[in-house]
Amino acid sequence: MEEMEEELKCPVCGSFYREPIILPCSHNICQACARNILVQTPESESPQSRRASGSGVSDYDYLDLDKMSLYSEADSGYGSYGGFASAPTTPCQKSPNGVRVFPPAMPPPPTHLSPALAPVPRNSCITCPQCHRSLILDDRGLRGFPKNRVLEGVIDRYQQSKAAALKCQLCEKAPKEATVMCEQCDVFYCDPCRLRCHPPRGPLAKHRLVPPAQGRVSRRLSPRKVSTCTDHELENHSMYCVQCKMPVCYQCLEEGKHSSHEVKALGAMWKLHKSQLSQALNGLSDRAKEAKEFLVQLRNMVQQIQENSVEFEACLVAQCDALIDALNRRKAQLLARVNKEHEHKLKVVRDQISHCTVKLRQTTGLMEYCLEVIKENDPSGFLQISDALIRRVHLTEDQWGKGTLTPRMTTDFDLSLDNSPLLQSIHQLDFVQMKASSPVPATPILQLEECCTHNNSATLSWKQPPLSAVPAEGYILELDDGNGGQFREVYVGKETMCTVDGLHFNSTYNARVKAFNKTGVSQYSKTLVLQTSEVDIKKLLAVAWFAFDPGSAHSDIIFSNDNLTVTCSSYDDRVVLGKTGFSKGVHYWELTVDRYDNHPDPAFGVAHMDVMKDVMLGKDDKAWAMYVDNNRSWFMHNNSHTNRTEGGITKGATIGVLLDLNRKTLTFFINDEQQGPIAFENVEGLFFPAVSLNRNVQVTLHTGLPVPDFYSSRASIA
C-alpha cells in the first residue's frame, strides 16, 4: 500500500487529493489547486470567439504552443503571452513532487464562496502540471470537469488503513485489539469476547467473520454514490458514450452533443472496463514480479562480484608471486653459472701461471748455466758439452712455442643475458578477457608439398587459411622427442618456414604448428609425421651428407665448392662448423688438405654450436679436436694438450673423423691410419663437425662415407 501513496497525491500541493477533478488529459488535480493555477487568456482566444470563427469543435480547446509560445520547459522558467503587454510574465514554481506549475498572473478577486463555487475569471486557461497541455475553460469554468469520486474513495480507504488498530467493542475495561469482525453483527471482537459472545454454533455459525482491516473497509463503504452529469447537474449518469469515452445522462442523449453518438448501458461498460483493467493488471503484475526477481538477481550479483573480486585478486597476486619466484630461481641458476665460469677462468689462468713460472725458472736456469759455460776457456771441455747444450736450448725454445705464450683463457665472460623477450612478455602481460572483442587467428595449414627431411634435419612450411580475416602476429612450431613423447617448442616467430637440425637418425617425429596474436593462440594444425634418414641396422652406422654452415661460421672464413671447401682470410685461427648435428649413431667424414703453406696447425674435430669461433678449436670446453702440423699431432679439449703423436700432414693429406655416439668415443685418422689412441671418451650430447684454420690452409669436406673396415669389424667383434 505504501508504494501507492505517490499516486494519491496532487502534483501541485503535494498532499492527498481533495475534491479531485479529471482533466481532459486524464490527469487529476485538486479543485482548489486548479483554481490557483488558472491564467487569463486574450479575448481573441476565448472559446466564444473560436466558435464564432468556426474553428472550435470542443468545449476544451488546447492551445497551439508552437504558435503561441505560451509555456515551454526549455525556457528559463518564465511563461508569457506574446504580443500582450497587459499579461505580465510570471515565474514558474515547483510543487513538492518536483512538477513545474504556473501560478496566476494576479491574485483572484476576494469572494465569500467556497473555492469550488467561486466564479472563475472570464477567458481562463489551465495547464496540466504533469503533461503541460493547456486548455481554455468555457463558461462553466472548473465545474465543467468531472469529479474523480473513485480516487476519493481510494484515498479514504488508504487513510483508514493507516489509522490506529481497531479495538474490541465488547471489552468492558481496557479494550483489547480486535482480531475479527462479524459482517452480519457489524461488531469487532477480540478472541476472548468472540468465544464468549459469538460462539460458532447455532444461528451464529452462519455468520461470516473477516479480519478487522477488511471489516473496517466494508463497514465504511457507504452505498455507492450516483454521480451527476456535469452539463445537467440534476440528472444522474445513466449511459456511457463510446465515442467520447465518458458517462452521460438522459438529457445529454436527447438534446446534448451526445445525441448522435453511440452509447451503451452504464453497468455493462462498468463491468467491461473492470475486466479490461484486471487483465491489464495481470500483465503488469507479471512484469512487477519479474522486476522483483531481477532486483534479487542484481543484489546477488553485487555479492558475487565482491567475492569474485577477492578471489581474482588473490589469484593474480599468487600468479605474480609465482613469476617472481621463478625469476629469482632463474637468477640463482644464472649466478651459479657465472660463478662457475669465474672459477674456471681463474683455475685455467692460475694453472698457466704456475706452468709458465716453472718453465721460466727452468729456462732461466739453463740460460745462466749456458752463460757460465761460455765463460770457460777450455776448448776441449767446452766442445764436449756444447752439442748437448745447443740441443737443450733449441728444445727449450720449441717448448715455448705452440701457443705456450698465448693466454689459454680470455678475460671476457662469453655470457650474454638476453632479457628482451622476457621484458617484452612482461610488458605484454595483460588480461585476455579485456581483449575478447578481438578474435584469435585461424588455425594454420601445413603445406605438405614443401615439408621434407634430409639426414637428421626436418624442414616444415605452413600458411594461414585463404579466407582468414584475423592476422597472426607469429607462429609456434612444436615437435615431439622422436619416441612419441611430449611436444616441445622448437620455433617461435613470424616466419612460415623452419628447418630443425640435430634430430635423431632413423626416428619418427610428430610436428604441429599454431598461430598467435595479442588475444590468444589458435587451435593446433593437423599433426605431420616426419621420418629422418635411416640407419644401417647391422652396423648401427648412419650415413649423412652435409656441408659447412656459413651462418654459424666466423666472418673471416671463405666458402667455395657449394660450401664444401673452406679457407680463411686471417692469419689467426678461425672456426667453421658443419650444418648437421649428431646426437645418436656412428658417423664418419673426411677432410682433404688442398693447400698447406708455412707449416700451420689446423685442427679437426667436433664442437657444440656455441663454441668460440675466433680461437683454435679445442681452446675452450665446447670443442674436442686434434691439431696437427707437418711432423706431429696433439689432442686438445679445454686448452689441455694430450697424446702427442708423431706423423703430420702435407698438401693432399686426408684427415678422417669418427664419432661413435653409441660408445661415446671420438677417433682421428690420417691417410686411412688411426692417429694415436682413441682421442676422447664419454662424449655425449649434440655435436657438429668442426674445423679451425688460417689463411695458410684450405680443406675440402667429404661426407656420406662408410666407416673404415677395420673399425667396423672391431665394432662387430666387440
What is the count of β-strands?
A: 40
Uncertain residue segments: 44-94, 96-108, 111-117, 537-541
Average pLDDT number: 81
Beta fraction: 15-25%
Number of helical segments with 4 or more residues:
11
Q: Which secondary structure elements does this structure contain, and how are they paired or packed?
A:
Elements: E1 20-22, E2 28-30, H1 31-36, E3 39-40, H2 47-52, E4 61-62, H3 65-68, E5 78-79, E6 90-91, E7 93-94, E8 100-101, E9 124-127, E10 134-136, H4 149-161, E11 180-182, E12 187-189, H5 191-197, E13 209-210, H6 212-220, E14 239-241, E15 246-248, H7 250-255, E16 263-265, H8 266-374, H9 379-399, H10 420-427, E17 445-446, E18 452-454, E19 457-463, E20 474-479, E21 488-493, E22 497-500, E23 508-516, E24 528-531, E25 535-536, E26 541-542, E27 557-560, E28 565-568, E29 574-577, E30 586-596, E31 603-607, E32 623-628, E33 632-637, E34 640-646, E35 654-660, E36 665-670, E37 673-674, E38 680-681, E39 688-693, E40 697-702, H11 709-717
Antiparallel strand pairs: 1-2, 3-9, 4-10, 5-6, 7-8, 9-10, 11-12, 11-13, 14-15, 14-16, 17-19, 18-19, 19-22, 20-21, 20-23, 23-24, 25-26, 27-28, 28-40, 29-39, 30-35, 30-40, 31-32, 31-39, 32-33, 33-34, 35-36, 36-37, 36-38
Helix pairs in contact: 8-9
Q: Key terms for this structure?
A:
23% strand, 718 residues, alpha+beta, 8-stranded antiparallel β-sheet, 6-stranded antiparallel β-sheet
Please tell me about this protein's structure.
The chain is α+β, with helices and mostly antiparallel strands and 718 residues long. The strands form eleven sheets. Strands 27, 28, 30, 35, 36, 37, 38 and 40 form an eight-stranded antiparallel β-sheet that branches. A hairpin with a 5-residue loop joins strand 7 and strand 8 (100-101). Helix 8 (266-374) runs antiparallel to helix 9 (379-399). The relative contact order is 0.05.
